[in-house]
User: Fold this.
Amino acid sequence: MKDTFVTDYLSFISNCKTERECVKYAKDILEEAGFKADTSTSNVYITKNDKTIAAFKLGKDPLENGMNIICAHIDSPRLDIKMNPVFSEKGITFLETHYYGDIRKYQWATRPLAIHGVVFKKDGTHVDISIGEKEDDPVFYISDLLPPPGSDYITTADTLITDEELNLIVGNTVPTEEQEGDTGFKAENVIMALIKEEYNIEKEDFYSAELEVVPAEKARYVGFDKNLIAGYGHDDRACAFASLTAFIDTEAANKTTCLLLVDNEETGSVDTTGISFNTFENMVAEIIYSHDGNELTLRRCLANSNILSSDVSIAFDPHHANVLDTKNICYLGKGTSFCKFTGGQGSTNNANPEYIKIVNALDSENIPYQMSELGKVENSCGRTTALFAARYGMNNIDIGIPVLAMHAPIEVIDKRDLENTEKLCEKFLTI
Assistant:
């Protein structure tokens, strides 16, 4: 682990706020370490739609003996801009959004927001977008209402902002007297003219765009002791960063090792870049067939593999202890969490006890860890990637960094848990 591990993470989490940005970061790091997009080589990476990436270090053992795999996801809850998003009301221009992943909608109002993503234009070119991160960039905003004392208008937190009120303010045009008399005048046209001038994007280009609305804030230390880190996307980019760093820093072992960073976990691991589909299986097949393997080699490789589903876990919060099992919850600063049960009473994963014995290896290395669940039984949640790996017969278990305010725009982790997760991943890759 580098001395700059934590500061490198602060930079990563501040600058990589979309799946595409995370994959580009990982590709750059892997290529610097000698990895190639060539399945005939020993150190290889494969990407899918620039939103999922797998990297492999081929070991001395036959591939049919399986791999040691670390899997983390690089998508986080956010707002996505719709395909026909632009409208204006009384001079204010908005972009309509819909939310991605489980969020509390009110948390996204009244804070500075940025737009990241890519726009594919009709002429075949594309435009990369990142607006709201530089000091001289504009930011964007979702408004809220002053809470009138004694009013019945506001009932519960979940109804403060409705789905269709998550509209992003992108401009305010005060019409001139001449424009006020023009029945064809629309404030949105003024804003779209500015967007076209600055970014060469027109209304129709939103049809083939992938634009994500994220907090326009950098990761920062929390507290006088600076042990905690506040930032957007700890779930699950904290585990992704620790996994990537461990994979790079670990020497090639007898057993083939694999790093898998996937998309779409927050919405059920679906789509072509989610682990519930055959994308990873196809990636492994490319490796095996490039080294004279066959279908049986592929099946044996997957079935004989071990995987850590490296996702974050709910940290104990004394203000919400009523929904937590205090004997079976993880605590900030006490190490990586192992979670045997995930998914509540549906879409569950239950790690085999024979596989949980890998924690014995941590005892010998004095790496702190803890056992936890994701809340009381009736409140339990947290389906992760592990259950999809289980369909291949892989040994699997969830591990994770404890997080406060999970799925909020800004979450909090302890830097020591981040460091110990990286150490744990390194040890796992050499077992």
